[in-house]
Amino acid sequence: MHQFARTATAVAAATLALASTAALAQDIVQKDSAWYTDAQARIQEMMARQPNTNKAKNVILFIADGNGVGTNYATRLFEGQKMGKLGEEHVLSYESFPNLALVKTYNINAQTPDSAPTGGAMNTGVKQVFNTINLNENAIHEDCASENGNKLTTFSEMVSEAGKAVGIVSTARITHATPAAVYAKTANRNWEGEAPDGCVDIATQLIDAMKAGTVDLAMGGGARYFAPEDAGTMDGGKGSRPDGRDLIKEAQDAGFQYAYDTGSAERLNLDGTTPILALFEGSHMKYEHDRSDEDEPSLADMTKMAIEQLSKNEDGYYLEVEAGRIDHASHDGNLYRTVTDGVAFAEAVALADELTDDGDTLIIVTADHEHAIAFNGYCGRGSPITGLCYDVAKGQVKHSDEPLTGSDGKPYTVAGFLNGAGAVLTEQADGAYFGTRPVVTEEGATDPDYLQQALIPMSSETHSGEDVAVYAKGPWAHLFDGTIEQNYIFHVMNYAVSAE
Amino acid sequence: MDRRLFLAGLASIAVPSAVAAAEVVRLRDLYNKDLSFSDLATTMEGELITVSGFMAPPLKAESRFFVLTTRPMAVCPFCESEAEWPNDILAVYTKRLLKVVPFNVPLLARGKLELGAVKDEETGFVSRVRIVDATYERG
Ligand SMILES: [Zn+2]
């Protein structure tokens, strides 16, 4: 990357000398600085850019759950620092994509969104109601009857009708909000394995969609909602369906392939002829930090299998890939697992980019919403993103080794959360909440199990309504620009696959 | 520099004396990544150990049993339709009736280490690792 930047710089400098002699009559003393020449190279790169107006044969929508601009910043620094860089200068795989917009994520009735209507907005082209999936603005949360007449048409239904294959990959339960947004319509995102009379639970909706041919591949966790209550499942867990249906058996009887661990996933036939259901955990798949390859595949592994299978379809495919547990780690207030799952996400995107052709594949990378994460100052360069904020060093570049302290005399970490389990106010014996900031050390803060300090005590840290970014490359990626509504993402996908 | 030394001094004074004397084991050190018992766990079976962690909200009031977790048991109302136990937990059977400690306050629990699956009669909770005859204090 850096090598490339240097070569490009030399070319750009030469071009620039010709193009702008008049404007540059004055000698610019900083013109040989790498900051200056790298930025000049970027100008040339931007001017050389041509819009890609091909018809998109394939669309891959990557969603990192809970990975807003702030969370993504933390992952950028973490991955960079893991590679031995200071971190701030690092570029995540998708951050080098040519097109970008900021996304407004609110729901019809919620300033702070959840993953159900946000995933639904991306899959139907309209904003939706808090905690519901793929119903219109008349839906009432938890009201089964309100599903009637209010169901929306999904992108998966549209493109499968047009001959495309559809795949879903997630590290969360495959019935969880973001993956469900591809195929389910429900008045309650929690109806994963059971629903009131007159409504259909999400797991059943997935099997119905696979039988109908609107979903061809589904990989993730959540086996429990596909097996009868108390029946053992192949991943080692137990079923939890009160209706006693064995949807895994129904899928196998319908001729679909089934995988439940790394070994059985490796035995899958990926020639595109037989639909695939893979459920690697009873509930969510493991955090990347806790996962072992022998047990279950990584997000990148699953993405690779999905592309291999779906790309056999001559009319192309739509694939949604979710890193579902970035969100869960932040709910826990545990930044370490947030960013390690974030790095796994960036690796999955890089692999998908490598396996596909920009000429016919639109890759979109975004998040559904942000979290209540926040960052302190004034840290010097290279302050460890999960660790302490160190003072800026005189004489450059890396931080001094002196941790900055609050007025309470104690060091503080670079990142924190506004609320959650890491709250410094804890419940006292008399029920009152009171506290002082615990002393935090570098070793303590960078421990994988550390919870960043938070303000408001809550059992689970919350989402926030702050913007997320969308990064894109491939056909019609240039339709992403400016500040957009989240439901616009669907319209770019739809335009790209329909373009003449 | 002075300040950090001072803080380190404060921290060691603050740690409860009885528990501090013993070496503190972290919950995650009792398990391997595949959730089999670690060498540390098997060598310490039957011995008194001190483990750091957090008290999950108890399943039952007036009990002598709680679950120690590696990180505070955060429960996201939107993410989970039912309570999820993490894989790496330790059942703690206490000497005295439980005094509940908030879920996010660090604890040190000390007791005799037992390995192997046992079902709790009162709650039906199945544990693979336990400490029994245990005491605990804020860590
Ligand atoms: Zn969430």
Helices and strands, with pairings:
The complex is a heterodimer of chains A (500) and B (139).
Chain A (H helix, E strand, L loop, with lengths): L1 H18 L14 H14 L10 E7 L4 H14 L16 E6 L10 H10 L30 H7 L3 E9 L3 H7 L18 H11 L4 E5 L25 H7 L3 E3 L2 H5 L9 E4 L19 H12 L6 E7 L1 H7 L3 H21 L5 E6 L3 E2 L1 E3 L39 E6 L5 E2 L5 E2 L7 H4 L8 E4 L5 E2 L3 E6 L9 E3 L2 H11 L2
Parallel strand pairs in A: 1-7, 1-8, 2-17, 3-4, 3-7, 4-6, 5-6, 11-14
Antiparallel strand pairs in A: 2-16, 8-16, 9-15, 10-11, 12-13
Chain B lengths: L1 H13 L2 H5 L2 E3 L12 H6 L3 E8 L9 E5 L19 E6 L12 E13 L6 E13 L1
Parallel strand pairs in B: 1-2, 4-6
Antiparallel strand pairs in B: 2-3, 2-5, 3-4, 5-6
The structure holds zinc ion (ZN).
3D structure, described in words:
The complex is a heterodimer of chains A (500) and B (139). Chain A starts with a helix and ends with a helix. Chain A is globular, with a radius of gyration of 24 Å. Chain A contains 14 helices and 17 strands. Chain A folds into two domains: 58-372 and 463-498, Alkaline Phosphatase, subunit A; 373-461, no CATH class. A ten-stranded mixed β-sheet of chain A has the order 5-6-4-3-7-1-8-16-2-17, with helices on both faces. In chain A, strands 10-11-14 form a three-stranded mixed β-sheet. With 500 residues, chain A is an alpha/beta fold. The longest helix of chain A is centred in the last third of the chain and has 21 residues, at 335-355. Chain B has a single domain, classed as OB fold (Dihydrolipoamide Acetyltransferase, E2P), CATH 2.40.50.140. Chain B has helices spanning 2-14, 17-21, 39-44; strands spanning 24-26, 48-55, 65-69, 89-94, 107-119, 126-138. In chain B, strand 5 and strand 6 form a beta hairpin. Residues 1-21 of chain B have low confidence and may be disordered. The A-B interface holds A 114-116, 131, 176-177, 189-190, 192, 240, 283, 290, 292, 294-295, 327-328, 331-334, 403, 405, 409-410, 420-423, 426-427, 439, 449, 451, 457, 459-461 and B 3-4, 7, 10-11, 26, 28, 33-34, 70-79, 81-82, 84, 87, 102-105. The structure holds zinc ion. Zinc ion (ZN) sits between chains A (66, 115, 327, 331, 463) and B (76, 78-79). Chain A: It holds the Pfam family Alk_phosphatase. Chain A: Mg(2+) binds at residues 65, 176, 178, 322. Chain A: This is Alkaline phosphatase.
